[in-house]
Design brief:
- In the C-terminal section; belongs to the Thz kinase family.
- One of its GO terms (cellular component) is cytoplasm.
- GO terms for molecular function: ATP binding; hydroxyethylthiazole kinase activity; magnesium ion binding; thiamine-phosphate diphosphorylase activity.
- Keywords: ATP-binding, Kinase, Magnesium, Metal-binding, Nucleotide-binding, Thiamine biosynthesis, Transferase.
- Condenses 4-methyl-5-(beta-hydroxyethyl)thiazole monophosphate (THZ-P) and 2-methyl-4-amino-5-hydroxymethyl pyrimidine pyrophosphate (HMP-PP) to form thiamine monophosphate (TMP).
- Helices cover about 45% and strands about 15% of the residues.
- It has helices spanning about 25-35, 50-65, 75-80, 95-100, 115-125, 150-155, 180-185, 200-205, 210-220, 240-260, 270-280, 295-300, 315-330, 345-355, 365-375, 395-405, 440-460, 475-495, 505-515, 520-525, and strands at about 10-15, 40, 70-75, 85-90, 110-115, 130-135, 165-170, 195-200, 260-265, 285, 305, 335, 360-365, 380, 385, 405-410, 415-420, 425, 530.
- With about 525 residues, it is an alpha/beta fold.
- It is elongated and about 90 Å long.
- The chain has 2 domains: about 5-220, TIM Barrel, CATH 3.20.20.70; about 240-530, Ribokinase (UDP-N-acetylmuramoyl-L-alanine:D-glutamate ligase, 3-Layer(aba) Sandwich), CATH 3.40.1190.
- A 9-stranded mixed sheet has the order 10-9-11-12-13-16-17-18-19, with helices on both faces. An 8-stranded parallel barrel has the order 1-2-3-4-5-6-7-8, surrounded by 6 helices. Strands 14-15 form a two-stranded antiparallel sheet.
- It starts with 9 loop residues before the first strand and ends with a strand.
- The protein binds ligand 3NM and magnesium ion.
- Ligand 3NM binds near residues 112, 172 and 200.
- Magnesium ion binds near residues 73, 74, 90 and 93.
């Protein structure tokens, strides 16, 4: 079996001990193959040699009938005995070089990698493919090494640029998180996984044919399209100021008709304000934080906003669950990592959340976004940015958007929004916004509201721009710009009203202006540049 002829898309690792009661191993294997498994690894951690040999030999016959390659975990002797297509070896198994000598020419050798160092070694040793994991927590294997996380896989895949080594991710991947996993693991350079490896997501099923078919379909859909834009909810035709303004006009006209429910887990400084801003826009807020209700809320909301401003343990638990469920339902998640540079706790929380679910938009000021990437280019003071921003904000937001696989909104006197390819520079707003609390948080509510509208419109008309296999449908770049623009233009109108004497009277006037804002008023004042 030649490396180039192997399809790693849906890689089944067997686990006989996980079969449902009464389910025959070979029957389950055959059904998995019918469902669309593209490569099989026999993994037997407890079997004696004779039993392993028997299982491997029978499995080989079945796989051969489906023309699917068979690999053996760890045991070179078993692979040789049954004429397997190759082996999968762990870090404490036979070295690649020796396995290569023992096995026939063109045998496939895969290596488990948990760290950059292990991956570098596997590349040097000439592995044909790597299994990167564990991505998420799993009950299937006792893990002795830290979880890699989705973003960790992405940074490892970069190392495979320019090589022909294939990569699959493993550990805790299932139907609910497979698309999020494929999407989130694409590297900054556009290097995507070749496939997904699972045990329990198929083996524990009473209907492994269906389980495999469901996974295979998502993987197949995701693999369509160029990897850098793959799965991202953006236009692949390029943007101009005119097309963006046209789209924003449509979003503004639609929001009051669709009246999307915006689920917001936000901080207790701004909850009321953010809810009022959401209503003024024409959306509906629900400000719930309890983990137990997150699955139900994901069903009914149009988008989710997560803001870590005043984080409590119950809200944290709620955030972890909410984003997961909203991802699974392909709805937008807007993330506001408030004050992430301020404490070690917040840094850990942000990493945790972004490894658990995929944000659609991440919004922050220069200090927050700098802290997110561990850059010391911008200092932060509490939740505010101290001093100047980035030397090259356009490059910064583009790079971060590619790395985080989402839209990045960098707020400040000038706002920068990027999808990783295009950058919009926005110069609307008023100084009063900096003199009241919660204006940044309310911007998050606005962005989430327009993301919901864009996603609902795309879902209502799948023929228009919907890319299959993408995590969220609808143009999230334009939606993020719309949210920022509407809020900032309303602030410009509010600030010059006769009844506004200062920041105190400004906020109620802002809510009034948001409630009466028309697309025409926005178009008249918009100061946007596309680079
Ligand atoms: N190897 P499930 S995790 C066999 O991290 C295996 O190398 C892992 O099982 C690694 O799909 C794992 O049921 C178990 O989570 C994967
Ligand atoms: Mg092993």
């Amino acid at each position: 079996m030649l490396q180039t002829s192997i399809d790693y898309s849906l890689y089944l690792v067997t686990g006989r001990e996980l079969l449902p009661q009464g389910k025959d191993y070979l029957q389950s294997l055959e059904e998995s193959l019918e469902g669309g498994v593209t490569v099989v690894q026999i993994r037997e951690k407890k079997a004696e040699t004779a039993e392993f040999l028997d299982i491997a030999s029978k499995s080989k016959d079945i796989c051969a009938r489906y023309n699917v390659p068979l690999l053996i975990n760890d045991r070179i002797d078993i692979a040789l005995a049954v004429g397997a297509d190759g082996v999968h070896i762990g870090q404490t198994d036979m070295p690649v070089s020796i396995a290569r000598k023992l096995l026939p020419k063109d045998s496939i050798i895969g290596v488990s990698c948990n760290t950059i160092e292990e991956l570098e070694m596997a590349i040097k040793d000439g592995a044909d493919y790597v299994g990167i994991g564990a991505v998420y927590a799993t009950q299937t294997k006792d893990l002795v090494k830290p979880l890699v996380g989705v973003r960790g896989v992405g940074s490892m895949l970069r190392l495979l640029d320019g090589t022909s080594i294939k990569a699959v991710a493993i550990g805790g991947i299932n139907l609910k998180n497979v698309l999020r996993t494929l999407h989130g693991t694409v590297s900054e350079t556009g290097h995507a996984l070749d496939g997904i490896a699972v045990v329990s997501a198929i083996v524990t099923s009473i209907n492994p044919r269906q389980a495999a078919a469901d996974l295979a379909e998502i993987i197949r859909e995701f693999k369509k399209g160029p990897s850098l834009t793959r799965g991202l909810s953006i236009s692949t035709n390029g943007y101009t100021v005119d097309t963006i303004i046209n789209s924003i006009t449509t979003l503004m006209k639609s929001i009051r008709i669709l009246n999307p429910l915006i689920h917001q887990i936000t901080n207790n400084v701004v909850t009321t304000q953010s809810a009022n801003v959401t209503i003024a826009l024409g959306a509906s807020p629900i400000m719930a934080t309890t983990a137990d209700e997150m699955s139900d809320l994901a069903e009914i909301c149009g988008a989710l906003l997560v803001n870590i401003g005043t984080l409590t343990p119950p809200a944290y638990a709620g955030m972890l669950k909410a984003g997961f469920h909203v991802n699974a339902l392909k709805k937008p998640v807007v993330f506001d990592p408030v004050g992430v540079g301020a404490t070690e706790f917040r840094k850990k929380v942000v990493k945790d959340l972004l490894d658990k679910w995929q944000a659609t938009v991440i919004k922050g000021n220069a200090g927050e976004l700098a802290a997110l990437v561990g850059s010391n280019e911008v200092a932060s003071k509490g939740v505010d940015t101290a001093g100047e921003g980035f030397k090259d904000p356009v490059l910064f937001v583009k790079t971060l958007a590619r790395r985080e696989r989402c839209i990045i909104v960098l707020t400040g006197k000038t706002d920068y929004i990027s999808d990783g390819h295009t950058c919009a520079i926005l110069n609307n707003g008023h100084q009063f916004l900096g003199e009241i609390t919660g204006s940044g948080c309310a911007t998050g509510s606005c962005i989430a509201s327009y993301c919901a509208v864009a996603s609902l419109l795309a879902r209502a008309d799948r023929k228009m721009g919907a890319i299959p296999g993408q995590l969220v449908e609808g143009d999230m770049f334009v939606a993020a710009i719309a949210g920022l623009l509407v809020f900032n233009v309303a602030a410009e109108f509010a600030a010059v009203r006769g009844d506004v004497k200062g920041p105190g009277t400004f906020f109620p006037a802002l809510v009034d202006e948001l409630a009466s804002l028309t697309p025409e008023k926005v178009v008249r004042r918009v100061k946007i540049q596309i680079v």
